[in-house]
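Task 17 of the worksheet. Students: predict the tertiary structure of the chain below and write it out as structure tokens. Keep your answer in the requested format; marks are given for formatting as well as content.
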Amino acid sequence: MAKVNLTIDDKKVCVEEITTILKVAQKMGMDIPHLCYEERLSPASACRLCVVEVKGVETLVASCSYPVKEGMEIKTNSERVKRARLVALELLISNHPLDCMTCEKSGDCLLEKYAYELGVSSSRFQGEKISYPVILDNPFMERDNTKCILCGRCINVCDEVQQCEVLDFARRGFSTVVTTGLDKPLTGTACVFCGNCLSVCPVGAIVEKERKRRGREWEFKKTTTICPYCGCGCQITLHTKDDKVVKVTSPPDAPANSGWLCTKGKFGFEFINSPDRLTSPLIKENGKFRKASWDEALQYVASKFKQIKQKYGPDSIVGLSSAKCTNEENYLFQKFMRAVVGTNNVDHCARLCHSSTVAGLARAFGSGAMTNSIAELARADCILVTGSNTSETHPIVALQIKKAVKNGAKLIVADPRKIELTQFAHLWLPQKPGTDVALFNAMAHLILEEGLANEDFIRKRCENFESFKEVLKDYPPKIVEKIIGVKAEEIKKAARIYATSDKSSIVYAMGITQHITGTDNVLALANLAMLCGMVGKKSTGVNPLRGQNNVQGACDMGALPDVFPGYQSVEDKKIREKFEKVWKTHLPENRGLTVVEMIHAIEEGKIRAMYIMGENSVLSDPNSKRTVKALKRLDFLVVQDIFLSETASLAHVIFPAACFAEKHGTFTNTERRVQRLYKALNPPGEAKPDWKIICSFAERMGYYMKYSSPSDIMQEVASVTPIYGGILYSRLGKKELQWPCPDASHPGTGYLHREKFTKGKGKFHPIPYRPPAEVPDDEYPFILTTGRVLFHFHTGTMSRRVKGINEIFPEGVVEINPSDAASLDISSEDTVEVVSKRGKVKVRVKVTDKSPAGVVFMSFHFAESAANILTNDALDPVAKIPELKIAKVKIRKT
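Model answer:
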């Protein structure tokens, strides 16, 4: 890139030609005042506060947008510049309330900052002042146009980043305001309440409702940590006072999210200080819980576990670890089950969401994780999104996809439902639920037929291509059209776009994995990527979006029945001996039970006790009535959680745990980025961090876990886990590290399989199409599919304790296509009964064309309309993941 030489305030500098004066000044440590400029947005050049003097240019120029040129001489603080800035500030203040003493933004207001620095306390420009009523049209923010300086930041972030286009300037001249179309309330617009408009507002025109009158900016302790919701791994800063969270922001240079947040990340923190939090150990006596001391509870649980282990053997005990807990806690939990209890019966919720990802990608590539980084998506030329309602389940990842489209990328969405991303897609393939393998095979068929495959990549880097090629003969697009319900020409278009783009990326989630063919679906996507050589380079790859904040880390830490930390097989004698040496005990050699297998084994009387950390199986398991019956059959159930969940209510003993904001540790996000979690608050009452509880439990069982901090635990992780070999607290800074990171000098890995696959050569797998376990019939004519919605998370344990979120989305609904609603004579707001072979639930109707005819959709966040009462617990034979995405149902009007 061309360089230019210039002089700024008598200092010579050489910079890139495309940069602006403001960026050069910032790089040199000079502070040019600015109000409308925000480094992540396009410059507006509106406030005129950043003006500078350029030799040879008659007028002052806006440094935020003025490009540098060879030989340019710039003065950033001349007398002429100072006078212009004073005038600009005085004009702003002339129509701005000077109520800094009571304004919530005081101490963090840029107008206040520059007025102080430039000595502006009043304005010479006296005249009419406009006063507007404060707008209170939503549960999260209040907008005060009286304080608005018309910088346009909120408009730009909504247009450029979120791409919702909710806000704009209205009226003209002195009466100009920022508002919604036709002045509608925000709840009546496309607003997703991400709060990013609030985050970029330089003054007090937009503020959080929950933050009002709870302290001044300089009184808050600020702790930057990691969001506890989805797997994006967004950095958040908790602003706390009096041991309570007051508001949440995010650093603009956060590696995974660049300071942008979604509604849950920004506003979903009220659960932390909820009065419902568990504060002391509880023991159930005569069907009721009573408070107990830690010593009594731990001693009681240890004695029961010892008795059961002695009478029935170690394999009569099972444990569920947690994707909501830290890496260190997951490591200790699986170590507890293996080294203390003596069983490999340990699993966690990844079994229900992405176990087929781990199984499929490990078979194809040698590593069962996201191949590339989130930020790389913005630079892709083609993105195939399938089985992921990204805008609702991983909103920050969706921003990168939308950015890519804005940059010229072609977006292909393969999804039965009309998700939000279809509005940005160049091609939408609404395949029938459960027909994914047929679709991907048909695309591969066309790519081979038209000579679009990357033969050099296949020859040098892959194996088993001929057997894969053979199976594709049965999947010409014309034949597949009849299976999946998408026209052959559309399939061909998608295949050509994907194969001929320079950098094509695949993004998927649980719409691909939660099937009895989940592993097949993942392998079919891996086949497609290898066929076109779209692996091992930036902005390509096969990229599963992990559902929970640390589901990737929980897998990495070995909270799985068949592998130790780092995906090292429990059946490999050498690996087992390595762990036995470090843990100083004999370890079991046979793989353990998976989540659903545990429930079946309880029914068979093989499992007598269970230890659950941070999981709510009653709502998350398929065929959940069966789960409840099984849990009630246990001789002993211990649950460790932050709330008295539906699962905890069935326990014999409950351990109260600290939440994410009350402990140190690390999370690993969906892109394999290991990030520090920092303690911002003290746990309520007697609640403790999970790692401390596990250590105390182990000690009562006669096995001593001596760690002074999570840092000590991570050191042990690094010593036994090759992919985490260089992950140490001393190295985890602002950007953190992505595994594999084998040693302390390694910089981490942004994308995988650069020169060779983890397993050596990528392996093609011939995958024939298999139909779902259940298909509609005369008695059950509809397909039920399930998933998340934007405003809630998983089983709702956290998000349903947030007042604003509950106001926006208070209850579960069943989404029904208008044609199906008409045939059933039902309308939106009606209550219906949704019935499967396993159970029935009552739920309110939402009629929408988002769901295709014959398919209904429910979220699984609500215990009152628990979708998983209906779902199928049929398993993928390889990954043992249940078919949560397809169940045949009937609908009855109540």
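Marker's comment: The mean pLDDT is 96. The chain is about 30% helix and 20% strand.
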